[in-house]
Amino acid sequence: MKFKNIVKFSVLCFAFGNLSAQNPWPKTTETAKPWTRWWWMGSAVDKKGLDKQLTTLSNAGFGGVEIVPIYGAKGFENKYINYLSPEWMKMLQFTTDKAKSLNMGVDMAVGTGWPIGGPQVSEQDAATKMIVQTYSIQPNEKFSEKIVLKDEKQKNLKTIKLDIVTAYNENNEAITLTDKVTQDGTLNWKPASGKWTIYAVFVGKTLQKVKRAAPGGEGYTLDHFSPDATKDYLKSFDTAFGNSNYGIRSFFNDSYEVYNADWTAGFKDEFKKRRGYDLSPYIKYLVSDNESEIAGRIKSDYRETMSELILHNFTENFTNWAHSKNSKNTNQAHGSPGNLLDLYAAVDIPESETFGSTKFDIQGLKRNLEDVNTKEVPDINMLKFASSAANITGKPLISNESFTWLTEHFKTSWSQVKPEAEQIFLSGINHIFYHGTTYTPADVQFPGWLFYASTNFVPENSLWPNIRGLNSYIERTQSVLQSGKSDNEILMYWPVYDQWASPKGKDMAFKIHNIEKWLHPTVFYENLEKLGKSGYSLDMISDKMISEAKFENQNIQVSKDGGFYKVLIIPQLNYLPESTLKNILTLARNGACVIFQSEPKNVPGFFEFEKRKNELQSLWNQIPFQQNGNLKSANFGEGKIILSSDVEKGLEFLKIEREKLTDSGLKFIRRQFDGGKYYYIVNHTSNQINQNIPLNFVGRQVALMNPENGEFGIAEMHNNSVKVQLKSGESLIIKASETPDNSISKWKYIEKTDAPIVLNQPWQLTFKEGGPELPKSRTLDKIQLWTNFTEDASTQSFSGTGIYTTTLNLKKKQADDYQLKFDKLYESAKVLVNGQEAGMVWSNPFEINIGKYLKKGKNTIQIEVSNLMANRIRYMDQNNIHWRNYHEINFVNIDYKPFDASSWKVQPSGLDGEIQLIPVYFSK
Predict the structure, then answer these.
(1) Alpha-carbon distance 527 to 644, whole Å?
(2) Is the pLDDT confidence value at 535 over 90?
(3) Per its UniProt record, what InterPro entries does this chain match (predicted)?
(4) pLDDT value at position 377?
(5) Count of CB atoms within 10 A of residue 492's CB?
(6) CB-based contacts of 199: which residues, under 8 Å, 6+ apart?
(7) What backbone phi and psi angles, to 5 degrees, belong to 396?
(8) Which of 198, 286, 525, 853 has its CA 20 to 30 A from that of 557?
(9) CA-CA distances (angstroms) from residue 798 to 123, 427, 870, 909?
(10) What is the rounded distance in angstroms from the CA atom of residue 728 to the CA atom of residue 8?
């Protein structure tokens, strides 16, 4: 039987690869390991518990923690510690000292719960909104009503003020009356004739409080658009931290989830300064549902101003403050009403977020529809906003809040986590943060303290014995993806003004939870999808980045530390600023290649838009296009400009080569290092890949590296293609180097396999660690699930580890290796052969090579299987065992309804189907 694939290992291995050869893996650091968000419930932590959990996390392969204090557990109120209090700072110092001794890092949220805010946020600094009241004046009517705020919730606030008063007649003629209103709300104005409508805009407050706040962190949400509010907010951290950063690597700000914050004190003046005109006469177009062109232009200017304010007044100030503490900062820009690319680029570590579960075509990958939220599917192109900003500006780390609500609680296996992690990596992200881990005091019983929206990466998880397999895989992969720099060749402009120009609504937040509205329907997104599948590598670029870009050394570059790009694509759009077109033409004049999918015909915004539109047209007319087949091309200065509705045709015309390996269904991301390139390649198809795949760069030597077990070897080459064997669900790293290393041995390709040996003999089944009680041991005639034994109630409720043991008489040992293949494994396992650990099996296709541990004659095979937490939680809910006991949200299911596992089906646990031992032979 001809081989179908690379032999798959899941080896518990702290050192990478074969130590007898020069190791091609990059040196690993704590940032290469996965980190985890670490919730301190009620900040009810103590030194003993912190020491224990940090040590446990370190032993499991975690590189760091991100502290986020939240609401607490009931009954522990006397152990709560107020956020940033002297006692809290002592616990923080102990944490960072302990972490340092374990070679771990510590990050910390600048706030509790989310979004940021707290007791230090005064009414003045709280999130702000406009409150609009309208009044009608009939012809010849004396207006006697007072223009005062009617909102009862706002009446007792001291900072409320009247900001704009504008009257419109039936012909839409406007008169600004703000200075005609006295302090008591009397309007000193009477129209000469006609019917008028008055729009009065008050500066109000959203009154939103911090969600899931920890003790000492309760209070108003921050006004992100006010520089004074940001500076005032951070003063409490200056007081707590003094001149030290207490060992914090990076200060973290969670996603922007501030609701109805659409104004700030001084917005009117900022708008005039930035947009060139007074908003007051046009306020009607901003606050009403009028969907005219002028409304779209006014709203575009409003949204652009909001974007600039959150960038300059919050994000840049946050970054500068973190640097003043000799720390970095991490920011989740998504959800905010700003240009995501610019916001991500303004911090040290841009952080994206995944939420929900992706449907992959991987053979045997479990995805039960009743256990996933099908409305929330992670999107690789949404993740690229963060990685693009980092790649362009030269940020070495791009992080991700990973696996939020991946499946229903207690039903997530490590095999389901792996492809989601791979999709994150393929987007260009290289620094994963699990969502997450909850601190639990040592004396709290199973399941410990848990957070309502997380995948439970906690020591109490019955799958914990095999988490090192997943963590080692992520560590090896990230060690590569954090090396060198991104190697994407294309820049694609994000036409954000097409979004901002929508006459619908008012403020516009770019959330991960509504990408079906603002991202998916666009031609921009269509291009991202199409080019990615065709084998092109790209980053997104903003107007601001284009203004900073230069063409040097035959490439477009925005930052001296950032990536080099061969071409800039301007997708089909409705609005392009004339200043951006001017900057694009400057790049082309200096030698850059640019592709326009359509002719830009309009400019965004209201101020002198006809004049600016003519400037845009005049700039466009400078391009001497000539028809060239089915596209137009022009030599422009030292560069080229292409006009083609088919972007791929334009790329072909410019001889920008795609990676043809995607034709086989493989996905990839590429990194460049001094003297070569890395390719990270993933097989998310249902097919096995056993073929030569072409690479655009092969150098003088190509090594294959298995991120799951650390193995490596020199690949077989045929011209510019490399032989690859990958089963469905597997991944591989290809290192193409200009400098050969003769100390590395050849990669072990499987040439053939003999008929499998089916292990259908009797097995012993025993149990260790888990609960609520250990089922009794038994002898099995054949391999089967322990949950098959329904007559024993303990097998239905047990979550933990069951040990399957058998003996095998190997009459001859002639094959190069022997692959142990599992038909059905629920959910992960550690394999021991003749008392020696062979490794872990935790992901598809559930195989492991054990040949070096086997001997001729009698062999003992022991398989320690760990199952999900689900069956034990089901038992606890069926028996009314109290475990959900939290303040605030007291645990919910994936649909945000009260959690109850009592009606769940028993989750299959253990081993089922055939277990085969397959003799394999490597090519010579």
Answers:
(1) 13
(2) yes
(3) Galactose-bd-like_sf (IPR008979), Glyco_hydro_2_N (IPR006104), Ulvan_degrading_GH (IPR053161)
(4) 85
(5) 26
(6) 132, 133, 134, 164, 165, 166, 167, 168, 283, 284, 287
(7) -75, -25
(8) 525
(9) 52, 38, 9, 9
(10) 11
CA-derived radius of gyration, the chain: 31
Q: Using an 8 Å Cβ cutoff, are 258 and 115 in contact?
A: yes
CA angle, residues 348, 350, 356, in degrees to nearest 5: 155
Classify the C-alpha dihedral 693-694-696-697 as positive or negative.
Answer: positive
3-state secondary structure 290-307: CCCHHHHHHHHHHHHHHH
d(CA 823, CA 829): 13
Q: What is the DSSP letter of 535?
A: T
Greatest CA span in the chain, whole angstroms? 109
Residue 333, token pair as written in the block: 């820009």
HEC secondary structure over 659-714 = CHHHHHCCEEEEEEECCEEEEEEECCCCCCEEEEEECCCCCCEEEEECCCCCCEEE
CA separation for the pair 513, 637 (Å, rounded)? 44
658, 533 contact by CB (below 8 A)? no
The confidence score (pLDDT) of residue 21 equals 52
* Model confidence pLDDT, tens digit, residues 771-789: 999 999 999 999 999 999 9
Which residue, 34, 111, 103, is CA-closest to 433? 34
Mapped onto helix, strand or coil, the DSSP state of residue 310 is helix
Tell me: the pLDDT tens digits for 676-731? 999 999 999 999 999 999 999 999 999 999 999 999 999 999 999 999 999 999 99
Tokens of 468: 């090192």
| Nearest C-alpha neighbor of 127 from the set 24, 256, 5, 213 | 256
422, 403 contact by CB (below 8 A)? no
Token digits of residue 167:
């009257």
Please give the structure tokens belonging to residue 623. 């391009």
Q: Which residue type is seen at 55?
A: T
C-alpha 148, offset from chain centre: 45
Give, in degrees to the nearest 5, the angle at Cα 780 between 776 and 785. Answer: 75
Q: In the block, which residue shows the tokens 């290796």?
A: 817
All residues at 6 or more sequence positions from 791 whose CB lies less than 8 Å from its CB, including other chains: none
